[in-house]
Structure formats: structure tokens, C-alpha cells
Amino acid sequence: MNVRFLSVFVIIVSISIILFTFFITEPEKKSSEPTPPFFYTISPKDMNKIHIKTKNDENSWYFDSDSNRWFFEDLNKIPTDLYRWGGITQLLSGPKTQRVISQQIDDPKNYGLDNPKTEIKLFINDGSYIKLLIGSLTPDGEKNYAQIEGYPQLVVVDALWDSVLSRLVEDPPYPDWYISGIVEGGKPTELLLFQNNEVIRGYGANRETGIWNVCEIPPVSEPCRGNELANEDILLDKINKISNPEIVGAHYLDILQDENLHEVFGTTVNDPYIYVRIERLTEKDFTEVTGITMTIGNQVEGENNRYAMIMETMDVVKVDKEWADSILTLFDGEILYK
Q1: What residue spans define the domains of the chain?
Q2: Is 23 helix (H, G, I), strand (E, B) or coil?
Q3: Pseudo-torsion of CA 245, 234, 330, 223, nearest 10°?
Q4: Which pLDDT does position 205 carry in this prediction?
């Protein structure tokens, strides 16, 4: 037999044996768990409006492309708080279902879908929308039954997902400067007025008696103290107005982008600045101190409004001029002696 032919024959037989052995002895690959299917999938950049309704309340937000921010639909130019809103559109872009329960819902009442716990409506740039119905908790309390309106499938989603989104309605993500009143249980104990970055006037309440006095300047204690009584009725009325600013809407978000604008808006450290000290006794008998701060700036050209910065944020807002002027009398009006 030809030696070359014999060599080739031996090689072919050897390879055949190896391949046969591999296919016979190769262990079965374990099939990995399939990735849970998406309930739906939307790119965050394709959403332009979100509406969430719970059994107690409802709220809507829209996307403003000029500022690249989300705003409350029912309020005038009030943006969402960046910290609390961060990640919300990503969360809404496509929650993974834990399990498809059924391809057809037998009775919506059995899953709380006849009267949903939460309804979420997502509006898309192409004019369409998706409406999600979130029903009762599953027996283990870790998931919610859910359905996309118009589709028959019954699925479950993580209960935490629903909890986070429902909270946007129950506790709306207002910006820090959107204040309305003194914190529950809190009492004002001091009012300081700054001009040119110095305290020019002050009023303080005695902790024991609650009686307000006109403070000595510069103040040497917190709250500040003085020997002459203040007109408490007028003073508390002013503080109540300060804690309920008549905000017209946001004007310039994040002034750190151009700090030279402080001069334009009249919100420099030299402009009128207000500090109200708020004290609240906690359940553990500790005194918690917070404050309301505000800089009132120039009049908005062509409008009956003024610029303002509230609660040490970097956003410039517009406030009603009549309201603002009534507060500014604390600076240049008569001192509020009793």
C-alpha cells in the first residue's frame, strides 16, 4: 500500500474517532433561565408627558426641550426636583415583568384591575401613548398584578416599582424653592434682614415666653435678642407671607451656568436677603432648626413681577411684585416696634 495513502487514511480515521467521542461524551449544556420579558420598552427620550393617577390623587408632567427639564403640567413653569426626578424616566422606560401569569385575564376583579391601584399613562413623541394598569398585590406582597390597556396578558411587576411611581403623586417632587407655609409643628423664632451682606434689622422670640423683641444689631445670640418689644401681629403676618411666596414660575434654572446674571436679576449677596429661623421640637425632645431664606431682586422688565432666589437653590424664579414689595417694606419701612 502506498505509504502516503496509508498516512492520510490513518489521519482521517483518527479525526473521525475524536469527533465521534466528542459528540458521544459531551455533557448537555444547562439551559440558563430566560431573561424576564419586558412589560413594554420605551426610550426615555421618546416620552414627552407622563400622567400618574392613584386612588387618592393624580399628577402630570411634561418635558420642556428648551431647558431639558420636566415640569408640572398643572403649575406655571414649576420644574421637578432634579434629585427626586433623577432616574424616573429610565424607571418608566421599561419595567421587567417577574412572570406572565396568563395570556388572558379571566376576571379583572380578581387582580384589582377593574379599579386599578395606579394608572400610568406615557405619551410618546409620535402622538401615541401607553396606559399601564397596576392592580392588587400578589399573595407574597412583593409584586403587583398589572396589564397594559388594550392587551389581554396578565403580568406581575415589582411592588417597589409601583411604590416609587405612586409616591410622585402622593408626595410630588417639587423643587426646594416651591414652599408653601412653615413646616408642620415648626415655629418661627427669628427674622433677620440682610443688606450688603450684613444684618441691618432683626426680630427674635424669647424661647420661654414666646414674646417677640426688636433685636440689637449686630445680633449676638440665636435667636437674636433685644430690650424693646416688637409688634407681634404685624411681624407674624409678614413671616406668614414670606413662608408663602407668590411664585409666578421659574425663570432661569441653575444660575451657576452664568453667575454674571446675578447683577441682571438683582440677586447678588448685596441685595435684600431674608432669613427666618424655624424651630421644631422632635418626638425625642430635640430642637430641630430649619430656615426659610430668600433674596428679592429687580423688577422683571415689562412685567408686574420681581426676580427672587429662594431656599439657597441656584434657580431664579419670578414672584408677584406686589407681594415682594410688601416684604421689602421690612427693609426700608418703619421698624416694627410695639
Answers
A1: 44-170, 187-332
A2: helix
A3: -90
A4: 97
Q: How many angstroms separate the CA atoms of 97 and 103, rounded?
A: 14
Grid coordinates representing 274 are: 431674608
Give me the half-sphere count of Cα atoms (radius 13 Å) on the Cβ side of residue 108: 15
Residue holding cell 427674635? 204
Residue 125 CA, distance from chain mean position:
23
- Mind listing the pLDDT tens digit for each residue in 24-66? 444 444 444 445 566 788 999 999 999 999 999 999 999 999 9
CATH number of 187-332: 2.60.40
Tell me the CA end-to-end span of the chain in Å, nearest whole number.
128
CA distances from 28 to 16, 17, 31 (A): 21, 20, 9
Asked whether the predicted pLDDT for residue 10 surpasses 80, the reply is no
- The answer, as to whether pTM is greater than 0.70, is yes
Amino acid at 189: T
